[in-house]
Design a protein that fits this description.
It is a single chain. The protein is 26% helix and 29% strand. It is an alpha+beta fold. Strand 17 and strand 18 form a beta hairpin. The radius of gyration is 21 Å and the shape is globular. The structure holds guanosine-5'-diphosphate. The site of guanosine-5'-diphosphate (GDP) has 19 residues, from helix 1. This is Elongation factor G.
């Protein structure tokens, strides 16, 4: 049976595109979070489970065997008028190169933490890598249903180990086995997942949590005010637009990397995924919000904005071989990419013709007319393009530079 969500993946403006990665320590729940996102967005009709090896993103058999996500996969899904291009990133340190390759094409990420373990060494190293690439992030503290789960302790470890100001936007309702929902501190509403339900139900804040929620909301406003003088001014000016001010300030701070919005849930029980997706669309950047990419050609610097009117430039970030032949995953940075276009492979200097342009979804691939600046698609027909190579319009050649890749990785004791 197909669940139809008509129009979700139809053309959306580039402002509604989120090129998103899920970053995590092995076992924190990255695969489960990804799977729940795909399920919720309607692209997976039969829910895959990690333990029986049927998840969609863990499609490689070696990966299934080892139970860790080795190869990045990009999947498109829709959420409330937005298109999310989910770029999977390996959580294992042995695959740092792959993480870096994924980080190059992301505009934003969700870092998943375990509510019992807090920030673990590998989540710390992935976090540092994301810092190097200036990737704005949200934090999702997962497994709140586990015995010993402690959101406040996990938040403290985010502050101490990652050196970033946590901006906690939710208060859990219940703990461990009794974790049933969250109070959204931005809208001051309760979101509850009734037993066995995959969708949340919204309602007023439970009276017994009202005081605690008010206290935490005040703490959130104070943290935001310290970092964002304009928000402080607006908070002082009056209450009418307080929530809107808070959302705008949280977004500004996320984009500037000055704070990290923290959400929580239990992905395994489907809890917390809808507000996480709402936060992705509210706080993480569209391709237009990130700096234009830079490239060089013949020693000259070139800049390409996320504008369909500019000459085409894209980056190959993954090549896979499957039933349909060679599938080349491309992040389009400028211009557009259409079936039949001739593109120049800046790595080999060879021109190649684009066979077909596909949007890869969880369980299928759809042919699209064209992909425009900001989008991520897969291309069939390219025979030579390798991972990491720049593809460009033959009349406007360039080699894209990795953003600030020359900086050393910061290691923290
Ligand atoms: P990954 O290695 O980060 O991709 O983590 P997985 O998604 O494979 O999850 C690791 C293990 O944690 C699996 O056994 C999951 O079933 C389990 N898990 C994931 N999310 C939750 C959760 O919210 N609660 C609990 N109790 N277990 C979870």
């Amino acid at each position: 049976m197909t669940i139809a969500f008509p129009g979700l993946l139809l053309d959306v403006p580039v402002t509604a595109v989120r090129n998103l990665g899920i970053l995590a320590h092995v076992d924190a729940g990255k695969t489960t979070v990804t799977e729940r996102i795909l399920f919720l967005t309607g692209e997976v009709h039969k829910r895959g489970e990690v333990h029986d090896g049927t998840t969609v993103t863990d499609f490689d058999s070696q990966e299934r065997d080892r139970g860790i996500t080795i190869f990045a996969a990009a999947v498109s899904c829709g959420w409330r008028g937005h298109r999310l291009n989910l770029i999977d990133t390996p959580g294992h340190v042995d695959f740092a190169d792959e993480v870096e390759r994924s980080l190059r094409v992301l505009d934003g990420a969700v870092a998943v933490f375990d509510a019992v373990a807090g920030v673990e060494p590998q989540s710390e190293s992935v976090w540092r890598q994301a810092d190097r690439y200036g990737v704005p992030r949200l934090a999702f503290v997962n497994k709140l249903d586990r015995a010993g789960a402690d959101l406040d302790a996990a938040v403290a470890s985010i502050r101490e180990r990652l050196g970033v100001v946590p901006l906690v936007v939710q208060l859990p309702i219940g703990a461990e086995d009794g974790f049933t929902g969250v109070v959204d501190l931005v809208r001051m509403r309760a979101l509850v997942w009734p037993d066995g339900s995959e969708r949340c139900v919204e309602g007023p804040v439970p009276p017994e949590l009202a005081e605690e929620a008010r206290r935490r909301r005040r703490r959130l406003e104070e943290a935001v005010s310290e970092l964002h003088p304009l928000a402080l001014e607006e908070f002082c000016a009056g209450a009418a637009l307080r929530d809107a001010t808070l959302v705008r300030a949280l977004r500004d701070l996320t984009l500037a990397g000055e704070g990290v919005v923290v959400l929580c849930g239990a992905a395994y029980r489907n809890r917390g995924i809808e507000p996480l997706l709402d936060a992705v669309t509210a706080y993480l950047p569209s391709p237009l919000d990130v700096p234009p990419v830079r490239g060089t050609y013949d020693g000259a610097q070139r800049v390409r904005a996320a504008d369909p009117a500019e000459p085409f430039a894209g980056l190959v970030f993954k090549v896979t071989t499957g039933g349909r032949g060679r599938l080349t995953s491309v992040r389009v940075y400028s211009g557009s990419l259409r079936k039949g276009d001739v593109v120049l492979d800046a790595g080999t200097g060879r021109a190649e013709r684009v066979g077909r342009v596909l949007r890869v979804q969880a369980d299928r691939q759809e042919e699209v007319e064209q992909a425009v600046a900001g989008d991520i698609v897969a291309v069939i027909g390219l025979k030579a393009a390798r991972t990491g190579t720049t593809l460009c319009a033959p009349g406007a050649p360039l080699v894209l530079e990795p953003p600030s890749a020359a900086e050393p990785v910061v290691s923290v004791a």
